[in-house]
Amino acid sequence: MSFHMTAVCGTVIAHDNFSFNRLKVIENELIQASTKKFSLEKFYKEPSISSRQMVDCCRRLLQLSLPYLHGMHLCVSHFYSVMQDGDLCIPWNWKKGEAMK
């Protein structure tokens, strides 16, 4: 297991590369599972969405039945929108039709 140190606001923080890599693996598995379950043409996140946020979003999505997403392009973002190319964006922290605060 490898560690590296980062200084943040004068505090040294140890980062566990194993945990970060494991989170990325979980994120990718959940993206694949969501893409398959909802028959999405494309499922992705905006660069400003962290892996933890994406994992949280996917876990909650996978608990639902959303047949109307079939064939869609779905983007995880910070807000609801429809892109010019037709991609549907939902906030990572959505909750039963609205964003959680």
UniProtKB/TrEMBL annotation:
InterPro entries: DUF4461, TCAIM. It comes from the Eukaryota. GO terms for cellular component: mitochondrion. Pfam families: DUF4461 (PF14688). Coiled coil: none annotated. Residues 20-95 form the DUF4461 domain. This is DUF4461 domain-containing protein. It comes from Myodes glareolus (Bank vole).
